[in-house]
Amino acid sequence: MTEIPILTLLIVIPAVFAGLIGLMSAESRESIRAVALVGTLVTFGASLAILPGFAVGEPGFQLVESAPWIPAWGVTYLVGVDGVSLLLVLLTTFIMPLVVLAAWDHEAGAKGFFASLLGLQAAMVGVFVALDLILFYVFFEVMLVPMYALIGIWGGANRRYAAVKFFLYTLVGGLLMLVAILYLYFAAGAQSFAYEAILGVELSTTEQTWLFLAFFAAFAIKVPLFPVHTWLPDAHTEAPTVGSVILAAVLLKIGGYGFLRFSLPYFPEASTTLAPPILVLAIVGILYGALVAMMQSDIKKLVAYSSVAHLGFVVLGIFALDVTASAGAVVQMVNHGITTGALFLLIGFMYDRTHSRVIADYSGLMKATPVFGGLFLVTAMSSVALPGLNGFVGEFPILLGTFQTYPWAAIAAVFGVILAALYLLWAYQRMFHGPIEGRAEGMTDLNAREIGVMAPLVILMVAIGLYPQPLYERVTPTVEAIVIGVEEAGVATEEPGDLSVEAAAEEDSQ
Amino acid sequence: MTTTIATYTGVYGMPEAGSAIDLAWLIPVVPAVSAAVLLLIGKRLGRYAAHVAILAIGFSAVASTIAFTELLALPEEARSVISPVATWLEVGDFEVAWSILIDPLAAVMLLLVTWVGLLIHVYSIGYMEGDERYSRFFAYLNLFAASMLVLVLGDSFLTLFVGWELVGLSSYLLIGFWFEKRAYATAAKKAFVVNRIGDVGFMIAMFLVFSATGSLAFAEVLPMAPEIASGTAVAIGLLLLVAAAGKSAQIPLFVWLPDAMAGPTPVSALIHAATMVTAGVYLVARVSPIYATVPGVGLTVAWIGVATALLAALIACTQNDIKKILAYSTVSQLGYMFIGVGLGAQVAGVFHLLTHGFFKALLFLAAGSVMHAMADETNPWKMGGLRKVMPITFATSLLGWLAIAGLPPFSGFFSKEEILVAALDPPGAQGIWVIGTIVAGLTAFYMSRWFFLIFLGPKRYEQELPGVHPHESPPSMTLPLVLLAVGSAAGGLLNATPASLLRFWDPETSFLSSFLAPSVVPYYGDTPFIPHVPAVAIVTAVAVAGVAAAWALYLREGVDHVALRERLGGFYQLSYQRFYVDELYEATLERGGRGLANAFTTFDRVVVDGAVNGIGRGVAGLATVGRRVQTGYVRSYALAVAAGTVLLAAIFLGGLLNGQG
Amino acid sequence: MTAMAVPLGWYLGLAAALFVIGLVGVLVRRSLIVMFMSIELMLNSVNLTLVAFSRFHGTLDGQVMAFFVMVVAAAEVTVGLAIIVNLFRLKASSDADDVDVLKA
After folding, report:
1. Where along chain A do its domains lie?
2. Nearest CB to B89; choose among A230, A411, A468
3. What is the span of the domain harbouring residue C37?
């Protein structure tokens, strides 16, 4: 039906611009960054064109494009979006121009740097729109390369270690997933690698469990879930600002996305039985991440651990197997992208000026740099889920929904709310309050470009906080279909008595 | 005595289009917008920032008044009006709207918040003059007012919670307004975090409410209250109590309020006396249909209230900081309000909330006026004899003092007595009356001490604070004092008509009792009205005794205070050191939490990350062993290849033969 | 199956013998040139096998395959000799055991 293949364009445009930068002279830094900005802006504009064509309230895939790729092996080029991936695609395309603008003054190896950013964007969009498992896997792994470069080349002092750790972790998870994908195709007899073809594969309980665990490994590492989270603080600390922003805003979302896209629909039975232990891991992540965050002396590491805690909420919502909670989890992924992205940007702006991320090096920033202080406070409040800002409208439905299915999990997770306030406000108090001392002395306030980068983010925080319906309208139908699918499968296996009645009723109606 | 539980017949109407009630959403929105404007461009407005802020809150005050009169004009059973504004959240079965609920309870709170708020805005013109963040202060005040109005007007648990949290944020900003001082910033954080502990209770209560009723809107939940399983209702009641204890500074979460005095004095008056801290009382009154189904929980609320009242009053007796005394007095008075709402006498509780709003705001502003005159000194022992120098502050404080001391016919007398009388009837509450009476005596004592030390006696400041020449404050500060003094003196009329002064609050003729009736459910519905004259007389006598004791100790000459303190020994120390509650929390919660966090951090580095790096090192170790195979001699490689081939061939051939055989 | 003047087993025996001679040559000799010739010997033993089977089955597949092997062998000789010549220039020796830079 599509006249213009928008989704393909979203992958191709950044890739083309990356290639364009590759052709440019390494000396012309100004024109390179301008091309990068134009590239990301064009992509963002193109991504907005999805919205009118996207029917709100439809659970399934829309704007599907397909082309044969390797027909002999059942591999197709198949892309499309549903409510969940739509938001994540838009988040990606929205963040990237800001990222380029934030890195405006980047100097070392600008050509490779900006080309990596654009290449990364192409892969990230690809991951979210791919509807063929091999295609998904390709994008999933391709993404690693520019990110590895961003950390390993343009990172901090300990960048090698962090980059390798990031790479190995993701690769190990990815390989397990690849094995599971191949098993689904060969052993379980799927006819192709297309998303929906594999949906129809019949699996025994044992098969489901093992395959679920293989996919789970890949996504749990990406999220990251306790105890496979330790690559994240290192990667965040060593990555350049924009690397951290992309990592937090987009890359971590692939885990949650994968759970919703693959784990739940493909392995409903295993998802149901394994949900409680996963919830426990999520809760441990929430509380543990928060407590560890409290003790960090490096503000960037603190935010990294806060990500562990926040994404624990996301996993909690997804595996609560409740519509409200899961929809909340998707919105919370977007919120976390905006908020934590903003926090990393702010920390980056500060680091550019003073070259320190040590909390103890600062005091009285609120007085020295009021605009910076104000924006940081708003962002921190969004991060601690203050009602009226975006964090709350994601977190609250997660907790409320989780309470309906697993009350103990919700109650345990609520305590994370206090801890979030503790560690962020404590850090805020140490850095921003008090008399001007240390590196705060003589620090200049944000300039117009930096305020320009922050403004869209802050506006979104408030707008989503007050009126999140545009997000929920699109997400809820998709999530509802997924959760109902899991519930039905759960009923079918756990309560055969009910099944016979329902099945009979269904047969009658047909 | 009967224990019949009255049922709540909530009927909610829609507002007439174009009426003030219909447009009530503007009441919080205007100050919110003003706050945003002031934050963005306030610096450029200079002194006019105050005018913008006052205009905004003034608008809300006038609009609230119009809405109130409109409500009065409606028939009694149609006085609960919901005006929908917009949808907010709609996720699966879960729906919450931005809607405004105006009923008598909300209307009364609206008036208190907006008008006292307005007076404090006006007062701040003078008080904050010359501050480098002048416009930001007014922005925060506006933000606070807007938050409190959201809290009052919210039509569901969740919208109330929005206001609840935003109030916490505004409080954080205002307490830490002079954040250059580390102690102030710490106090701000403490307030926010302690409030958040209470919020956990609120959130879990909301989950339970939603599980039980499928909704969070008051209009749907409250009429269903009797259908909630009693176990659930008990849990909801207790959890909401935790929330209310956090916001209203009750045991065990009262520790933040005295520290909150770090904020500028108008903030103490607005937030920590008149409005924010009353939110917990408001919440308990708001959900009275739920408490009505489980009166035992209400009794717990009341006991917490009276325990807090006693503890705080004991502490207030020995503090040497005029704002701290008022802070502990606030905690203590909030305890009274909890007794009221806990025992199902919500009208009495809300009545005390209102009168306390007047006289405590007055006393705080008067304290601010004194500090303004004394170069920010807060130790009353360095003051004395300010009666002549600050006549308006003195006269208004006098009325505030009489009101809080509970002497007739000032406002505090009526509201306090009404609460205590409520404790006479319900089973298991008589002890509350006894302790409440003692607290009334203590209140009269410490407030008299406060008043006498500041305004009467010799002018100690001439020696203690050389160079300080106290003077009366500017009109922008004294005018609010005068207006609040009128309220403090005459506030009792809200629920006690002059014609029935001896009969006190006659439900038939008293204004508040009849006006609030549709909003609240008294738990002990059929209790006949009894004047309880002897009881009232006893309480009043105790209060007078408190005043007399203070007079004997602090106005008579020749009392050796040092010797007295030594004679009291441990008791004095216990009270002066605030019963070591802060130290206790620090030793247990704070140090425990920090220890846990440290342990986890070490665990993360050593065990979790250690395992990862261990795997890495393990692989490297294996490789060290494995690399010995690499001799570098081509021939040994070739031999390995040949041997491998032979091996494979053998295996395949073996398999082939086996397969055939 | 076509009848063969010389039975298949003889061919295979000869090929196996050639292969073993080549293999032993590679393993025991140290001169790179000799090792290289031994490898050629092994390749040709395989060629012999291929052709023998091709004749035995009466199809051309094996002979085609033998041509492939020859082409690859020719390419290998080119590259291999180039490597040996370069090594000799570098180390002034054609002894395989003198080249152990890959030793761990």
Report:
1. 6-501
2. A468
3. 8-102
